[in-house]
Amino acid sequence: MASRTKASAIDEHEPDHWFERLRLKLRLLYHGLSPRARRFQTVILLVDLAIIAFFIASPLLRDTSSFLWIDYSIAAILAIDLTARGLAASRPLRWLRQFPVVIDIFILMTLLAPAWLFNFGFLRILRLWTLTRSSMIWRPLEKLGLSEYRETIQAVINLLVFLFVVTGFVYTAFAQRGSGIAGYVDALYFTVATMTTTGFGDIVLPGTFGKLVSIVVMIIGISLFVRLAQLIFRPAKIFFPCPQCGLSRHDQDAVHCKACGHLLNIPDDES
Questions:
Q1: Helix (H, G, I), strand (E, B) or coil at 219
Q2: Element (H, E) at 36
C-alpha cells in the first residue's frame, strides 16, 4: 500500500527543466509500479545480490589479480545507484540521513579505499541488511502471494548478516594470533560453533577480549536462532486489520480480535 501511495503521488505533469525531468524519471523507475519499473527494479535487485555474493567471497578472492578491478567496478555501480536513489528521493537531504543510506555510503568508502579501510571490509555484508529496507526485495513476494513469509525471510537475512559480519570480524581481528584461525573458513567454523553454543573447543579466541567477543556472539546468535524458530514453528497468521483497534495479524480461524474483542469477518479463501 505504501508503495502504491508513493507511486501515485508522483506528479503526472512533466516538468520543464531537464533536471526535474530526470528526477521524475528516476522516481518512476525506483518507486513506480509499471511493467517497465518492475523490470528495472528486478535488474537492480539481481545486481545487488551479485554484489553481496562478491562481498561474502571477498576474503577468499582478495589475493587474486582481478580483485581490485572487481572492487572498483562495484564501487562505480554502487556510487551510480546511490546517486540515482538520492535524485529519486522526494527529499534528498532527509534521505541522506537515513541509517541504511549512511551504511551504504560507508560501504562505498571501503570499496574506494580497500587498502586503507581493509579492517572494515567485513562490514560490507551489511549491504544485505540495507537491501531489506527497500521495497524492491519484497514486491516480488507480494506478487507471488508470499507476503506472509516476510518476517521469516527477514529473520533469515538478519541471521546471515550477523553470521558473516562476525566471521569477517573474527578473521580480521584474530587470524594468525594464536587462536587456531588460519583462514576465513576457520573463522566461519568458529562463528557457527559459537552461535550454536556447540563449543568444540578446538578454536578459542585468546585473551579477555576474545572471551568477551565469544560471549556476545553466543547471546546474540542464540537470540536470532530463537526468533527464527518462533517464526517457522508458530501458527501461521494472516494479514487482516481489525476495524476497531487496527491489529493487523490474526489467526486464520479467529472470530474475535485478540486485542480488543471486536467481531471479525475474515474471508475464507477455501470457500
A1: helix
A2: helix 35-61
